Every structure is written in structure tokens, then in C-alpha cells.
Amino acid sequence: MHDLLTLRDGTVVLVRPLERRDRAALEAAIARLSPTTRLLRFAGPKPRMTKAELDYLLDVDHHGHEALLAIDPVTRDGIAVARYVALRDEPDAAEIAVTVADDWQGRGVGTALTDLLIARAREEGFGHLRAIAMGENRRAVRMLRRGGFRSVSAGGGLVELDLDLLLSPS
Questions:
Q1: pTM higher than 0.85 for the full model?
Q2: Domain 3-164 belongs to what topology?
Q3: Where are the domains of the chain?
């Protein structure tokens, strides 16, 4: 799967599944994130990714663990990743996470990737998607709510959101 995705401002980005060969590029992209963006994405300070963390992020089987990569058409750099990982205790549910490069935030790439990821989760038979975001990550919480996610709990500075894939429109 390689898709062209047109953003709100007319920019076209390439989207494809994340692959193991993307390891160096993924590590570099995470390193380019601002400390604030890394904090909001990983819910804590993250100066660098460990080998084990990178292994986990790249251990994508495209069924129970999917990750979609958006690529800048000019630089060919990765600009965003949206992923879901099946929840062990709930076979019909997966947790979703989205990361967008600082200079691409607010342009709709996160929303567009999330929409593609929701479609993939439906194809794989998931009934629910969950997201956990820091409460201060207002942009991410707003994006998820606009996409049909509803808040199911909050505490400890975190907000948990849920999307019922069986009830929400395709």
C-alpha cells in the first residue's frame, strides 16, 4: 500500500506502511522532535529511544500492530507515524498513537493518518480503538474527539479516549 494523501493546504504526502528498513529514519525523526513533542507523545521526558523501544516500534505485523508513515514529498523525510497495537486483554481493541513532526503539526497530517489507521483497524476486525493522551496535549485530544473518539476516563494528567468502530461511521 502506497497512498497519496492531500492535506488541507493542498500539499500531497506519500503514505505507506512502516517497515523494519525505516529504523535509522525513524530514530532520526524522533530525535528531530522538540522536547515538548516527545514529552507529549511518550508521556515523559524522552531524550533518545533505546534499542528495545525502537525494536518495539518497528515490530509491525500489519495486523495486530499497524503503523503508517507519512513522507515529505520534497525531503523524503518521515513526517508522521500513526499506529495501533492490539490490546492483550481485549482482543477486539487496539491502542492508537500518532506522532507528527513539529513543523508539520496543524496541517492535517495527523487527522488524515488517523482516518487511514481507523480504516485499517476496521479491515482487521477491531471493534474499538483506544487512545491515551496527556491532558495538556490539547491538540491531540481535540483531533481525536473530532474523529469520533469520546473520553472514557481521566486521571493522573492522562485522558483515555475510545472509538467504537462498530457504531461510528465508516
A1: yes
A2: Aminopeptidase (3.40.630)
A3: 3-164
